[in-house]
Amino acid sequence: MVTPRPRLHSTARACDLVTLIDKDLPVTAETQTRPATQIAPVPHTGLERNPGMELDLDWVRAVQANTSAIERRAATLPGRRSVKKEWQAAWLLKAITLIDLTTLSGDDTPGRVRRLCAKARQPVRADILDALGVSGITTGAVCVYHEMVPTAVEALRGSGIPVAAVSTGFPAGLSPFRLRLAEIEESVKAGADEIDIVISRRHVLTGDWQALYDEMRAFRDACGEAHVKAILATGELGTLRNVARASLVCMMAGADFIKTSTGKESVNATLPVSLTMVRAIRAYEERTGIKVGYKPAGGISKAKDALLYLALMKDELGDRWLQPDLFRFGASSLLGDIERQLEHFVTGRYSASYRHPLA
Amino acid sequence: MNVSEIFDSMEYGPAPESAAEVNAWLDSHERRFGLFVGGAFTRPGETFESRNPATGEVLAQVTQATPDDVASAVAAARKAQGPWAKAGGKARARVLYALARLVQKHSRMFAVLETLDNGKPIRESRDIDIPLVARHFYYHAGMAQLQDAELAGREPLGVCGQIIPWNFPLLMLAWKIAPAIAMGNTVVLKPAEYTSLTALLFAEVCREAGVPKGVVNIVTGDGRTGEAIVGAEVDKIAFTGSTEVGRRIREATAGTGKSLTLELGGKSPYIVFDDADIDSAIEGLVDAIWFNQGQVCCAGSRLLVQEGIAETFHARLKRRMDGLRLGDPLDKCIDVGAIVDPVQLKTITEMVEGASGDVYRAATAVPEHGCFYPPTLITGLSPSDQLMQEEIFGPVLVGTTFRTPAEAVELANNTRYGLAATLWTENVNLALDIAPKLVSGVVWVNGTNMFDAAAGFGGVRESGFGREGGWEGLLAYTRPKGSPKTLKPMPAQAAPQEFGAPPLDRTAKLYIGGKQARPDGGYSRPVFSPKGALVGHAGVANRKDIRNAVEAAQAAKGWSKSTGHLRAQILYYIAENLSARGDEFARRISDLTGAKASEAEAEVAASVDRLFTWAAWADKFDGAAKGVPIRGVALAMNEPVGVIGQFAPDEAPLLGLVSVIAPALAMGNRVVTVASEPFPLAATDFYQVLDTSDVPAGVVNILTGSHAELAPQMAGHMDIDAVWSFSSSDISGIIEKESARNLKRTWVNHGRARDWAGTAGEERAFLTEATEVKTIWVPYGE
Q1: pTM for this structure?
Q2: What are this entry's molecular-function GO terms (chain B) (predicted)?
Q3: Interface of B with A (CB under 8 A)
C-alpha cells in the first residue's frame, strides 16, 4: 500500500502542526521559539516554505554556468543511471504522483477539464495497479488556465489533488503588471492551491535583477497561502548563466518552485537546463537551509525521460526531492507512455495506447 | 523488495548487463588461450589465470609467452612486413576500415569482456573505451589512405614491439596498433598480464578483417615476456606503463638503434580558479580521478583550488563524492568499479594509510568482496608531502590551495611528471595565459580526460616522450626514407714531432652565459692542422662547465617566450655578421681541416644560408587546430623543448655547429653545444659572432672538449630536456642510457653520417626534435 502523497499546499491547522513537530522533528530552540503560524510546512514532511531573502547581487553575479561542461554531464547521465524491473515499475509509479497533469489550450472546455481531472484521480488502470500491489496513486496536481480553475476544483473535490493555475499573463507575461497581480488573486480566490507565474524575460535579458526580484516578490505576496512556481521560460533566456542567475533571484524572492518553461517556447525542459536549475536549488539550500522545488515542463513525454529526471533529482539533490512537494513534471502526454510501460512490466508484452483510458 | 516498498525507498536496484555472450565465447575457447602468431592461435603453453577483479572469479587461462615464442612472433612479423609495406597505403586503409567496422559490430562483446577482465564500469567500456577504439581505427584508415600522398618522404620502421598497460586494455591496443600498421609496420603486441582477453578477441577480429598473417601478433605474459620483446630483433619499442619500467626499457634499448616512445606516469594538476563554474569543475573531477577508479595515467590527481573558494569547493566536492555508486562493474547504474587486482588495491591502501592531511572517504557503500576502494579526497597537503608527488593510480585525489595564477602554475609544475593538466576558469584571458605555462603534453580547459585520435597525446619530463594520435603520432612509426652511410670516427689531429708556434697567441675559451670562461678544470688541448701546424688551444670542458652552462641556459628562459619574429631577426643578424667575417672563418676552416679554400668558403656560405633557413622557419612552424569531434578546438601548439644539450658534428666545424644551434634557437630553445672535437676553434670564433648579434646571454653556450667524457654528464643532467648527438665518437649508447635518469628526449646518430651540406642538414626532423607538441583542448559554447 502506497502512502498518500504529501501535498504541496498546506491545509493543515496549527494544532496539527504542533503534533507533527512534536512527533517527527527534533525540537530545537529555534522551533520552540518560532510561533507556529509562521511555519507553513506541508503535512508529513515538515518542509519549511521558502521565505526568500534579501537580493544578494554579489552572489547572483558570481554564479557561473559552463555550457559545454553542463552538456557533457547531462549527456553522460543516461549512461550512468539505469533502473530495471520492479525498480523501474516503482519509479514510474512515483513519476505519476509527480505529474502536474496539464491542459493549456485555447479550446479547453469544462468537459475537457473534467475528463482530465478524472484521469488525475485514476491515472492507471486498476488491474495494473492490482498486479503491482499498489493503490491510491493519483497525479501530483492538475494544471489549467484561470477560467478552468472552478471546474477543476469541483472535479477534484475530496481527492486531495491540488489545482494549479498558470497565471500572470501566461505564457508571455506581458500584460499590465496590476492585471497580472490581479490574475493571481482571482485564481487563488477561485480555489487554486498553486500558482505557476511567468517571469518577465526582459529583466533577465537586460540583467535587471532588481526588477526581476521585485516582480517575483510581488507575485509571491499576491499568492498568499497558495504556493508559487516561477516559470523562467529558459528557452528564451539565451544562456545557461542567465538561467542559473534567474533561478537564484527567483528563489531569493520567495519562489516555492522554479520551473523551466511554459511549454510554449520553442525549446522547453532539457537536461542541461535542468542540471543548471537544480544546482542553483542546491546552492540556495546550502546557503539558506531552505529546500526549493523543481518543475521541468514541456518536452517530457517518454517514461524513459521521466526516469532520467528522477535520477537527476536523486543524484544532484537527494531523495527528498523525489516527493511531490519538491518535484513535479509539467506534462500532458507523459502519463500515456508510463501506462504502457507499466502494462509491459505486468504482462511481459508491449502494450498499445488504446488499451489505456484517455484523459 | 516489492514495488510498493521501492516506491517508498526510491532506491536504484540492480541493473546488470548480461555476460552470457562473453561467457559463451570464453567457453568456445575452453577458457584457455594460446598466442596469436602468424595469423593463428598457438596451442596454449604454460598458462596463468586471468581473473575478474570484482569477484575474484577465474575467467580464463592465458599463455605465458617465452622468449622463443616472442622470437617466433617477431619472425612472423618480419616476414609479413615487406609485403604489407609494399601493399600500399590505400590497401592498408581498407583493412583498417574493416577493423573499425568490426569493432563497432562486436562493440558490446568487447565492452562486456573488457569490464569482466579489468573491473571498469560497463558504462565506461561501452560509452568511452570501445567507441574510441573504433574512432582510432577509422582515423588511421584515413592516414593510411593519405600516406602515399602526404608522407611520401617517409617509410615504415619495420617490426614494432608494443607493450601496453591494464588500465585501458583495448584502447591502448588501438592506440598502438592502428598507427603502426597504417604506416606499413607489423607488430608484436603484449597486453598486460591482468588484462589479456580483449587483445585475444581482437586477434580473432583481425582474421575477419582480412589482416594478413603476421601483421598483427599478440603475445601474452608478464614482465618477462615484455623483456623478451624489448630484447628481440625489433625496430621499435612503444611502451605505455609505469615510469619505473619505462626507465628500464630506455636503458635496455640504449645504443641498439631501436626507436622508442614512452607514455608513462603522471601526477596531473587540476587547477580551479575562483571564477570557475564550481559545480562543473567538481563534476570534472568525477571524470578526472574517479574515472576508471583513478587508474589513469593522465588522471587529474592533484587538486589545486584558489584559496577564496576552497572551503565551499571542498564541501561540495565531498557531497558529490557521497553520491558516487561503487559496485559490480557490469551494473549499468554504478560509477566506480573494481580496482584491477589485489596487488594494486594493496598499494593504494598502503599509500593512503601513511598520508597526512585530512582524509575524506566518500560516504558510499563499498562492496564487501572484490577489489574495491572508495573515492577518497585528501586535502591540506603541501607539495612536500609524498602523496603530492607520487602517483597513486587509484581513486584518491590529493590537494592544496593557491593564491595567484602565478602560484598555481608554480605548484602545478612542481613535479617530475608532465603528462596532462586541467584548468577551470570562465576567463578566456586567464585560460589562454595559463595553458602554455603548464609543463605537460596535454592541457584541458574547462573539461578533462578528453581524447581523440586526431589530437596528440603524450608527455614531457618523466611522463615520457613521443605522441600518439594526429599527424604528430605518425612520426613515431615512420622515418625518413633512405639509408645513411656509416660515420667514421674522426679523432683529433695528433701532435707532430715538430711544429711552429703561431705568431701571436690567441686564447679560445668556453662561452657560458654570454661570457667567455676559462675551463673549470684549467686544462687546454693544443689543436693541430693536418699539415702539423699548431693552430691554437681549446679548453677542455668538464662536468662543472656543463653545470655552469646549463644554469646559464636555464636562466635564459625569456628566449623561449620571445616571438618567432624576434628570433628570426636575431638569426638573420647572426648570418649577417658571419657573412661579414666570412674570409676569416674560411681560413680558419682550412687551417683546421686542410680543406681547400673553395671548399672552406663553400662551408661558410652554406652556414650563412642555413641560418637563413632556420630564421625563415622561426615564425612558420605553425601549430594546428585539430578536427576533434566536440564543439570546441584542440590546439596543437609547437612549444620549445627547453634546454637542449648538443654534440655538434665533428666533420663540418662551422656548418655542423650552425646546423644544430640554429633550428634549436629558431624554435625557442636554449642550447649547450659541444663543438666539433677535432676542429673546435671555428666554434670559439663563432661565439664572437654571437656576441655581436644581440643573442641574449645564456641562450647559446659553447663548450669544447672530449665528446666521450662529456656525453654521460650531459645526458645524465636532470635539468636538460633533450640531448642531440651528431658526434663521430661512439656516444649514442651512453647518451640514451644516461638519459633514462630523467627520461629526457634524445636524438642521436647511432654512428650514421648526415650530409650537412645537403637537404639532410636542414630536414624537417630538426623542427620536430626542437619542439614538443602540446595539445590544448578548449571546449566552448554559451
Answers
A1: 0.94
A2: aldehyde dehydrogenase [NAD(P)+] activity
A3: 1-8, 10-15, 123, 126-127, 275-281, 283-284, 287, 312, 315-316, 323, 332-333, 335, 424, 426, 446-447, 630-632, 779-782
